[in-house]
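queue> holo job accepted (magnesium ion)
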Amino acid sequence: MSRGKAKPSMPGASRLPVSIYKVGGPALEDPELLAPLADDVRRLGGYVALLHGGGRHIERLLHALAIPSRFVEGRRETSPEAMDVVEMVLSGGTNKALAGGLLAAGINAVGISGRDAGLLRARPIPALGRVGSEVSVQPELVLALWREGFVPVISPVSSGPVGEALNVNADEAALGVAAALFAERLVYLSDVDGVRVGDQVVERLSPAEAEALIADGTIAGGMAMKVRMALDAARRGVAEVVIAGKARLTGGFPGTRVLAQPGARALGAVGLEGRA
Ligand SMILES: Nc1ncnc2c1ncn2[C@@H]1O[C@H](COP(=O)(O)OP(=O)(O)OP(=O)(O)O)[C@@H](O)[C@H]1O
Ligand SMILES: [Mg+2]
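queue> job finished
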């Protein structure tokens, strides 16, 4: 079997495709998502891992517990008290709900966190408290689960330099996992069908188009972070990087393809209803 030198050892790695899904918190609130997601995981075959977010769940619990927190350039400033809540929500409720739901839908899912077996390590951003970035990935646990036929469901909570929990954006964690595992496909599943420009969802996005749309505020909030991570994934060699919604799983609009280079076609667009 021929393998690239840096490629982690896994059976059939040269033939079986690796696909990473990132499922956003808002998308997870849709009770109709799990069945088509499980079908898609089955259809893809190969090696599949899922990362998940959970921003809105965190927001609700922080609010209920009256723990203050604010956003700074798309990242949540995270005090130690807020970090307890972030970890409780992401590695607890959200992770177990997604893994449990997939299991009930026939997928052999195992819920783990980025802190397990040193899977995700990050560098703290001191000005933001317990926020981490620049994720490095030690993928052995994922490889071990794949070898035994399991589908890892990963919370993005990561370990800092002294083993402390760090709050890492799930879009960034998904990019790190996809790059480290030489994924061919990275699908960001959100609560929108793709990247919107006006009342259209675009089919493709080149780096220059993405930068311009972020700069003029058309792409904002969580989507700006997602598009940046998607661009980085495409540049780092993930062949198919897509930002999509549930429609992709149910035969509708397949999402916005994010390209490493300007595409053959500029900014193709379809209506929000999807392709004709
Ligand atoms: N141009 C745009 N196209 C589509 N969505 C956009 C755009 N600009 C801003 N958004 C917002 O980005 C949101 C998606 O990002 P958000 O971070 O909220 O979700 P997520 O990443 O899927 O979930 P989580 O952050 O929990 O992982 C959309 O719901 C939408 O409100
Ligand atoms: Mg987000």
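queue> The chain is about 35% helix and 25% strand.
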